[in-house]
Amino acid sequence: xxxxxxxxxxxxxxxxxxxxxxxxxxxxxxxxxxxxxxxxxxxxxxxxxxxxxxxxxxxxxxxxxxxxxxxxxxxxxxxxxxxxxxxxxxxxxxxxxxxxxxxxxxxxxxxxxxxxxxxxxxxxxxxxxxxxxxxxxxxxxxxxxxxxxxxxxxxxxxxxxxxxxxxxxxxxxxxxxxxxxxxxxxxxxxxxxxxxxxxxxxxxxxxxxxxxxxxxxxxxxxxxxxxxxxxxxxxxxxxxxxxxxxxxxxxxxxxxxxxxxxxxxxxxxxxxxxxxxxxxxxxxxxxxxxxxxxxxxxxxxxxxxxxxxxxxxxxxxxxxxxxxxxxxxxxxxxxxxxxxxxxxxxxxxxxxxxxxxxxxxxxxxxxxxxxxxxxxxxxxxxxxxxxxxxxxxxxxxxxxxxxxxxxxxxxxxxxxxxxxxxxxxxxxxxxxxxxxxxxxxxxxxxxxxxxxxxxxxxxxxxxxxxxxxxxxxxxxxxxxxxxxxxxxxxxxxxxxxxxx
Length: 500
Fold this sequence. Notes:
Blueprint: H1 9-15, E1 23-27, E2 32-34, H2 35-51, E3 59-63, H3 68-79, E4 83-86, H4 93-103, E5 107-110, H5 112-125, E6 129-132, H6 140-145, E7 162-169, E8 175-181, H7 182-195, E9 203-206, H8 213-224, E10 229-232, H9 238-244, E11 250-253, H10 255-262, E12 277-280, H11 287-297, E13 302-307, E14 311-315, E15 329-330, E16 335-339, E17 352-357, E18 379-387, E19 393-398, E20 403-405, E21 408-410, H12 412-420, E22 425-435, E23 439-448, H13 456-464, E24 475-478, H14 492-499
Parallel strand pairs: 1-10, 3-4, 3-5, 5-6, 9-10, 9-11, 11-12, 12-13, 23-24
Antiparallel strand pairs: 1-2, 7-8, 13-14, 14-15, 16-17, 17-18, 18-19, 20-21, 22-23
C-alpha cells in the first residue's frame, strides 16, 4: 500500500498539502502559521543541517520543550534525509548521557538551561554541533536557520531508510533504539487518515508532547496527510483545552486527559458541540471513563492500540460499535494473532502473547541483534491479550511488566536498580497500580535491612536526582519480604493484587 509514496515521509506529507496560504496551526496565544510556513521553515532547517556536512542517515538528537519551531526542526530533519531522535525534556543528564552515547548524533539541540552540561557532554562524545531552542522559539538554532534559503529539494530516500530513532525501555531495563523507517511511518499514517475519516475540514486539538510517537507521528501525521489544521497547545492544560474545544473537530489524548476533562464541572455536551471524534491511546482507558464520558458528552471515545515499535496496530471502528475495555480490531494491512508460548495461534477468549506483522512494524533495534521476532516475521509485542467472538481485542497485561503512567513508559528494572543501590535497602520491586489521573501510578515496594531508617520520602528524594520526574514512584510501600515463585522470581502480580 502507498509504496510509491514511501520515498520520504516529508515528500509524502507535501504531496497532500493544500494551497500554501492554507492555515496549518493556531497557537494558544492566537499566532497562526500556514502550510507555506511549514514548507519554508523546514527548507531552511534542512539547508542548515546539510550545510553543516550532515549526510543521509546521520542523527539529530533533540531535547526541547514543545514549540512550533520544534515542529519545523522535525520536518526539516526528515526532509534532509536525516534521522530525527527525540528525547523527553524530563530526562536527566545521566539518562541523556546514555542516549547520546548510543545514538552518536551529529547535531544536538537543547534549551538554554541545559546547554552548559550538554556542551561538556558533546565534547566528551565528539558531537560536532550543539544548538539551543527555547519554548518561545529563541536560541541559536533559529538564528542560524534564519540565514538559510527557503527552497530545498527534499532528499530522496529508500523505503527502508530511517526517518526516526525513538528509544523505549527494553526487557533488560536498558532503553533500546527503535529504528523507524520512512515506509513504516508513511504506511501507518496513510491507513489512519482513511480509517479515522480525516479530511481538510478537520481541526485537531494537539495537546500531546512531540517527543513521543502519539503526538509526533500519529497526531501530526494525520493533520499533514489530510491537509487539515490544528490548535497547538504547549502541554495539556485543562482550562486551555476547554477554551480550544469549540474550535476543534478531533482530539487525541492519553486517558489522563479525559479523566481531567470529566473532573471539570463545566465540561458538557455543549463543550463538544463541534467535535466529531475523541481518540485515546498510549495507556489503557478504564471502562468507567469510557462510560462516564459518553454519558456526559454523547461521544464514545475511540480507543486504539499501538506501540513505538509498530505505530498503530488496532482501532475501534470510526462509526458504530466502539466497545469499552477493548482496543478494537486490526487496522487494514496489519495482521494480529494471539499465541501460546510455542507460537501456536489461540482461539477466541484465550489469553496469550499478542503478535503483529505489517508494513508498520519496525525493522529492529539500533546496534542490537534481531530480537522479539518469530521465525515467520511476527513481532512479539510483550503484551498479553485475547480476541472475543466478534473479533475485538482486549489487552489484559504486559508480560514485560512495563508501567505506563500518563502515557509514558517506565521500565521497573531501571528504578529498582536505583533503589537497590541506596544504603539500607535489601531489595525492591516496582509495579504499576491503577490511578484515576495517570492510568497507572509508579509504586515501589521495598524491603529494608534490619535497623535501616530510610523513609518513603527519603527514597523518593534519592530517585528524583537520578531519573525523570515521571519515573519517580508516587508511593513507596515497605514489606518484610517480596513474594516469590518456586523459581525465585518476584511475583509482581501478587504485589499488584495485594496493594490494589
